[in-house]
Amino acid sequence: MPSKVSCLYLLTVVCWASALWYLSISRPTSTYVGHMSVPIRKTVKKVNNNITFTNIRTRPLNPHAFEFVINEEKKCETVTPFLVILISTTHKEFDARQAIRETWGDESTFSEVHILTIFLLGRNTDNVLNQMVEQESQIFHDIVVENFIDSYHNLTLKTMMGMRWVATFCPKAQYVMKTDSDIFVNMDNLIYKLLKPTTKPRRRYFTGYVINGGPIRDMRSKWYMSRDLYPESKYPPFCSGTGYVFSADVADLIYKTSLHTRLLHLEDVYVGLCLRKLGIHPYQNSGFNHWKMAYSLCRYRRVITVHQISPEEMHRIWNDMSSKKHLRC
Ligand SMILES: *[C@@H]1O[C@H](CO)[C@@H](O)[C@H](O)[C@H]1NC(C)=O
Ligand SMILES: *[C@@H]1O[C@H](CO)[C@@H](O)[C@H](O)[C@H]1NC(C)=O
Predict the structure, then answer these.
(1) H or E segment at 178?
(2) Which CATH class is domain 68-323?
(3) Which one of 35, 118, 215, 217 has the fewest beta carbons within 10 angstroms of its own beta carbon?
């Protein structure tokens, strides 16, 4: 009996000791390669009783400690998509998602290239909405959710979830587009004019509507940025979050860089900060319109994205463009 007790006691001590050992190990801070949670053995010698200090200094700034609660892990097991489209969306936008599925996001439109359409969401504070999205996911299998609270302020987390998803579950895809649910995308132009499936795949490539701007300090603005969060007077060049496209290798690079980059709620600015750290320069492409543009067949034939399109407009535009393919401008 006493031997059993002391054995248990010993086990507890060993457990505790290894937990402490794990906690006190320095995490890598400047290297983006390899799995971030794997401790580096070299640094074990540095362990002392000064645990608090070591931890504060070396823990990732922005650990993204969320879990996928709805996932599509196997989407890329059988096919390697040419293009993964990540669409930032909110729970109530059921009709916007459906409009995209039935129009430009329809994966079966192109027979010679594989397109994958994925909707990104967080968790809603209203559980009924979570359940509705779960049911929608069981029907369409195109929804990915992590367990952060879904809010405008958390948009950056949604984008980082998308980067993580591509890096983890679809690393062989060639290109990725990140866009919003109120955007019309001219897929013909995106695929054949910009990405050109028959040409050599690019690496470290990033394009969209490039903005060279600085923080807005007016608190009433939707894009307000405090001096505390971002003291510099200029942002690095960034692509408007309404739609940007990149080679899939960049997803992993951005996700890993983000773990060491202080979070900002403006997702497009934040992606720009990660790109600067990576030394990747976004290419300007004026086909990415981040403003609303009245519909005309010829005008819409020239663009890649148009902003502020309602689900009804999306159907109307898509039907018009599809039925008039033979017309010249
Ligand atoms: C903890 O370690 C740091 C750096 O090694 C040192 O500056 C600091 O004084 C230490 N604190 C204590 C309480 O030992
Ligand atoms: C963002 O998500 C985190 C993690 O779920 C949550 O703690 C935080 O309250 C959210 N922020 C906002 C503004 O909703």
Answers:
(1) strand 175-180
(2) alpha beta
(3) 35
**Token pair belonging to 34:** 């390899």
3-state helix, strand, coil in the chain (%, to 5): 40, 15, 45
Residue 63 CA: which ligand is closest? 2
Task: Tell how far the Cα of 55 is from the centroid of ligand 1, in angstroms.
Answer: 12
Count the neighbouring beta carbons within 10 Å of the beta carbon of residue 31: 10
- Do 124 and 151 touch, CB atoms closer than 8 A? no
Contact 80, 173 (CB under 8 A): yes
Is 90 exceeded by the pLDDT of residue 120?
yes
Question: Quick one: DSSP state of residue 36?
Answer: T
The four Cα atoms 165, 169, 170, 176 give a dihedral, to 10 degrees, of -10
Q: At residue 231, does pLDDT exceed 90?
A: yes
CA distance 59 to 277: 19
Give the nearest ligand 1 atom to 49 CA.
14
4 pLDDT higher than 50: no
Closest CA to 329 of 291, 311, 302: 302
Cβ atoms of residues 124 and 152 within 8 Å: no
The token duo for 201 is: 């795949």
Taking the domains of the chain in order of start, what are their residue ranges? 68-323
CA gap 281, 25 in Å, rounded: 35
- Angle 241-247-250 (CA atoms, 0-180°, nearest 5)? 75
Mutate to test the pocket of ligand 2, among 64, 69, 154 (most ligand atoms within 8 A of CB): 154
